[in-house]
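forwarding from the other thread:

> can someone predict this with iron/sulfur cluster?

sure thing
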Amino acid sequence: MYKYDPIDQQIVNERVAQYRDQTRRYLAGELTDEEFRPLRLQNGLYIQRHAPMLRIAVPYGLMSSKQLRKLADIAKRYDRGYGHFSTRQNLQLNWPKLEDTPEILAELATVEMHAIQTSGNCIRNITTDQFAGIAPDEIIDPRAIAEIMRQWSTFHPEFALLPRKFKIAVSGTQQDRAIVQAHDIGLEFYKDAQGQMAIKVWVGGGLGRTPILGTVIREHLEWQHVLSYCEAVIRVYNIHGRRDNIYKARIKILVKALGIDDFRRQVDEEWAHLKDGPLTITQAELDRVAHYFEPMPYKTLPAHDASFDAAVACNPAFAAWVKRCVHAHRVPGYRAVTLSLKPHGKAPGDITSEQMHMVADLADAYSFGELRSSHEQNLILADVQLSDLFAVWEKARAAGLATPNIGLLTDIICCPGGDFCSLANAKSIPIAEAIQMQFDNLDYLYEIGDLELNISGCMNACGHHHVGHIGILGVDKDGSEWYQVTIGGKQGNDASIGTVIGPSFSAEEMPGVVKRLIEVYVRERSDEERFIDTVRRLGVAPFKAHVYAEKESA
Ligand code: HEM
Ligand code: SF4
C-alpha cells in the first residue's frame, strides 16, 4: 500500500498543529462557532446529535494492520470502544470529545492517517472495488491511479470550496463493484483495441434528494489525461454549479440542466487548455506509484488444498461461510475473505476495538498485514491461503465476524440515522436490527439468495437506499417516524434506481413488509432468478398488492 514520503508526513503533521491551535482558540472563546465550523469540517469533525462525529479517511479502503490497531486504540481511549465503517470506506467515531480531537488527529498522523477532506464541499475519499488488485475479473488494477488522484485532489487549491461535496469512484473490473454510476465522476478502466489502458468516464451520478445515475461523457480517455480531464469537468461544475440552492448544487443537476452534450462541449473547451500540460501523468510517475501496489509475495501453491476440501465436506457451518464470505482470487491457492460486520441484531458496519485488534492480528497472520473496507460496510482480508481458511474462520467466528450472510438480505447497508445523525428524519439502525432478527434463520436466507437491502434515515441517501434491491427511507410525517419502501434498485453495471411501492409504513410494520415482499418473490420467481430480476420482470404491482392487501386486512 502507499507509504507517506517526508512531504506527505510533514503536511499531515502541520495540519495537526494548525488544528490543535484552532481548537484551543475555540475552546478559549477566541473563535466563534461560525469561525470554527469550517476549520473543524476541513478536519472531518461534524457536530451531531449527542457528540461530535469524526470521519477518518481510509483512501480507497486500504489499511495496514498497524493502522487498524491505532484506530482500535483511538476508539477505546477517546470514544466508546467502537467505530463505524461507512459507505465511503471510511471509519466514523460517534462519540469523541471536541477537546480530544487534536490528540486523535496527532495519533492518526503517527500511522499515516488523517481526517482531511472527509467533509465539506471538496473532493471526498476516492473509493474503489474492495477486491482491487486480486479480483479474477479485473482488467486494470485501479489503485495506483486512485492514489495519484488522491494526491491531486487533497488540498486542490481550486476545488476546496465547490458548490457541493464531490465524490469520485474508480473501477477496473468487468463487474463494477464501486458503483461508478452513483458518483459525481465514475472512472471505469478498460483495455482498448490496442491493448492500452483507457478510461470510460461517467459524470453526474448521485443519490440523495434527486437520485440520478451517471451518463457517459467520454467513452475513451487515455489514462495519461485523467487528471487534466477531471480537472476540466470539475472546473465547469465549479463555475456553473448552483451555489444558490443546496438541493440543486450537485453536478448531477448541472449535467441534467445543460444536457450531456452541452456539458461535454464546455468540458472539452476547458480541457483544450489543460490537456498535455503539467497534469499529464507520465509512465514513470504511474510506475513509481504502482510500485507501492505490487503483488504481495505470494507462494506458488496448487489450485486445490486437500485439508480445505475435507473441512468443507465435513463441516456444514464452515462450508456455509466459505460459500458466502470467501471469494475468488487471481492467484492459485489464495482466496479473499469478507469479515461480516453484520451480525444479526447489531448496527451494520459497527466494529469494537477488540474486534479491530482481532482483525489486525488476522491480517498479520494470514494476509500480509493488510486489509480493506468495502462500501457495503464490511472488512476484507484479501490474500488468504486456502490451507489457512479454516483457522481464519475459527478465529473470526470466535470474534463474531463470521456471520455467513455476505450478499444476503441481512448484509444490510445502513446509515447511522436518528441514533446519531442530526439530519435524520427517522432511526435506521433499529430497523436494520429488527429485520435481521426477523430473518435470523440462515437456511431461509440462503433460500432467498442474493438480495441487497439498503436503509437511509433521510433523503440524503447515505445508506444508498435508491440502489438497493429493497430500499428503505426514513421519512417524517407529523413529527413521527415512517418508512418509505422502494424496490428494483441495483448497483453495478446494470444499475437502476428503485421505484416507490406506495404509502409509508410505521417502524413496527417494517420487518413484516420485508417479509411480504420476499413472499411474493419466492412465489413468483423462476429458477435461479434473483429478487432484482423478478422485480424487473414483474414490476412493482404484485409486490404492492401483497404488501398493502395485508395492511388493509390487518
Ligand atoms: C452522521 C453523520 C452524517 C452526516 C451529517 C451526513 C450528511 C450527509 C448529507 C447532508 C448528504 C446529502 C448529500 C447530498 O445532498 O447529495 C449525505 C449523503 C451521503 N452520505 Fe452522509 N452523512 C453522515 C453519515 C454518513 C455515513 C455513516 C455514510 C456511510 C455509511 C454516509 C455516506 C453518504 C453517501 C454515500 C451519501 C450519498 C451521496 C450521493 O451519492 O449523493 N454518510 N450525507
Ligand atoms: S441518510 Fe440522512 S440520516 Fe442517514 S446518515 Fe445520511 S444524512 Fe444522516
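Residues 6-27 form the longest helix (22 residues). thats all i got for now
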